[in-house]
Amino acid sequence: MTDAPSQIEHDDLIDIDFLLTPEEIALRGRVRSFVDTVVRPNIADWYDRAVFPVEIVPEMARLGLLGMHLKGYGCPGQSAVDYGLAALELEAGDSGLRTFVSVQGSLAMSAIYKHGSEDQKNEWLRGMAAGTTIGCFGLTEPDSGSDPASMKTFARRDGDDWVLTGHKRWIGLGTIAHVAIVWAQTDEGVRGFIVPTNTPGFEAKLIEQKLSMRASIQTELILTDVRLPATALLPNVEGLRGPFECLNEARYGIVWGVMGAARDSYESALEYSKTRLPFDRPLASFQLTQQKLVDMAVEIQKGTLLALHLGRLKDAGRLQPHQISVGKLSNTREAIAIAREARTILGGNGITLDYSPLRHANNLESVRTYEGTDEVHTLVIGHHITGIPAFR
């Protein structure tokens, strides 16, 4: 652990940096510098035009952000805490950036890494870690979000091949992906398939006119008699355990990431309150404003401590699914409240893209929904507490 207070975290009220190593602080600084120099000057324009900046993917790869927590096969092999710190800094820029890293690494790459054959890992993971191959993860369907067991996408055997037919929706990166991990019902239960997106019968359509996650890519996948060889099947998992293990990787990143959006919202409001001069005095000098700022700062500290604790548990091999649900539920809920409260300090100016809080708040509405809604995570925790499943 580091003994000296960090110079980078001037709002670290309770010295959380004392719990980080110098190497972790240095990694965080590198990602923060990337966000400050590449993302912040451009994010308002990207968001306004609903553009995901694919040109920054090579730099993300050079920073070791793709498949960051995976080891071997050209992957960076960083710790869970390293990945969390990077997720926090990325989402301080925009949720869409952290989502890209999450879809690529925690979902698509993790599916191959956890459940694929050695041949599949060797074929795909190096290019994905380098950012030259983009992946997506096809689980959610138009009528099947929180209940993936009801998915209608089906893969049938035809000789040695599989023929895949179905419809997926809210699939990140589908229109720029080179490979899709698609989960489908089969006569043997739910299985995962590696689907090159240039396979005949595969179509990706962009979901447009979004009010949230505008600097990100969400799509529909339409699969019409997509013929795949036997080698496309992920051989090492059957049933919903396969996608759920990947979703837990993504949910873990969210626990950290949303605190980045919250912190950026708070810092935007704090700086504004020092320079805005209603009634000939700084807005920050009013008691009600200070109460808002203090409440935001305290919740950010608590949420970051929770994320760090879960990261240490993950690195120790002790992290349980219900603990991830605690983090995702609590931190996302608090991050939205912080972003909304920060917007109130900005007044009417806060509805413009000159300031980040309302953009973060809009994005967080999506983050609150994907990888498990509040209701789903509440019931996961409720099941753990009571021993009684209440999903049905």
Overview of this protein structure:
By secondary structure, the protein is an alpha+beta fold. It has helices at residues 22-39, 43-49, 57-62, 80-93, 95-115, 118-129, 241-275, 287-315, 321-346, 357-369, 374-386; strands spanning 71-72, 75-76, 135-138, 154-158, 161-172, 179-184, 191-196, 202-206, 218-228. The protein folds into three domains: 16-129, Butyryl-Coa Dehydrogenase, subunit A, domain 1 (Orthogonal Bundle); 135-232, Beta Barrel (Butyryl-CoA Dehydrogenase, subunit A, domain 2), CATH 2.40.110.10; 241-386, Up-down Bundle (Butyryl-CoA Dehydrogenase, subunit A, domain 3), CATH 1.20.140. The strands form three sheets. It has a four-stranded antiparallel beta sheet with strand order 4-5-9-8, covered by helices on one side. Helix 4 (80-93) runs antiparallel to helix 5, helix 5 packs antiparallel against helix 7 and helix 7 (241-275) runs antiparallel to helix 10 (357-369). It is globular, with a radius of gyration of 21 Å. Mean pLDDT is 96; it is low at 1-8.
Attribute tags:
Butyryl-CoA Dehydrogenase, subunit A, domain 2, 3 domains, alpha+beta, three-stranded mixed beta sheet, Butyryl-CoA Dehydrogenase, subunit A, domain 3
